[in-house]
Amino acid sequence: MANRKSSTEASTEQLKADLRHLSQTIEELVKATADDSRSNIKELRERAEQRLHDTRERLEARGEKLYGEARDSVREQVDACDKYVHENPWTSVGIGAAVGIVIGMLIGRR
């Protein structure tokens, strides 16, 4: 769990750095536009486009990774719950009945 957390923090820091670099490049592009130096504008524009592309790819990869981790975690929890219910059927029935009674009491109070 600690490994996932440090991985998430590292990814967050990388994303912040990417966004910082992208915003700096865009600021440079805006400043260069004021000079109206055609070669300078073209170079900065290409750098901005490349950084935007790189940042987009990283965001997509991070989103896919987070989705996969969440899916795996939920699958593990479902498997553990299923295993528990199969190993302890009467306990599971008792828990379900208790939850049903509590919900019924809460609904009945309204």
Automatic annotation (TrEMBL):
<keyword id="KW-0472">Membrane</keyword>
<keyword id="KW-0175">Coiled coil</keyword>
<dbReference type="InterPro" id="IPR043605">
    <property type="entry name" value="DUF883_C"/>
</dbReference>
<feature type="transmembrane region" description="Helical">
    <location>
        <begin position="90"/>
        <end position="108"/>
    </location>
</feature>
<dbReference type="InterPro" id="IPR043604">
    <property type="entry name" value="DUF883_N"/>
</dbReference>
<keyword id="KW-0812">Transmembrane</keyword>
<comment type="similarity">
    <text>Belongs to the ElaB/YgaM/YqjD family.</text>
</comment>
<keyword id="KW-0997">Cell inner membrane</keyword>
<feature type="domain" description="DUF883">
    <location>
        <begin position="13"/>
        <end position="60"/>
    </location>
</feature>
<dbReference type="InterPro" id="IPR010279">
    <property type="entry name" value="YqjD/ElaB"/>
</dbReference>
<dbReference type="Pfam" id="PF19029">
    <property type="entry name" value="DUF883_C"/>
</dbReference>
<protein>
    <submittedName>
        <fullName>Membrane protein</fullName>
    </submittedName>
</protein>
<keyword id="KW-1003">Cell membrane</keyword>
<feature type="coiled-coil region">
    <location>
        <begin position="12"/>
        <end position="65"/>
    </location>
</feature>
<keyword id="KW-1133">Transmembrane helix</keyword>
<feature type="domain" description="DUF883">
    <location>
        <begin position="82"/>
        <end position="110"/>
    </location>
</feature>
<dbReference type="Pfam" id="PF05957">
    <property type="entry name" value="DUF883"/>
</dbReference>
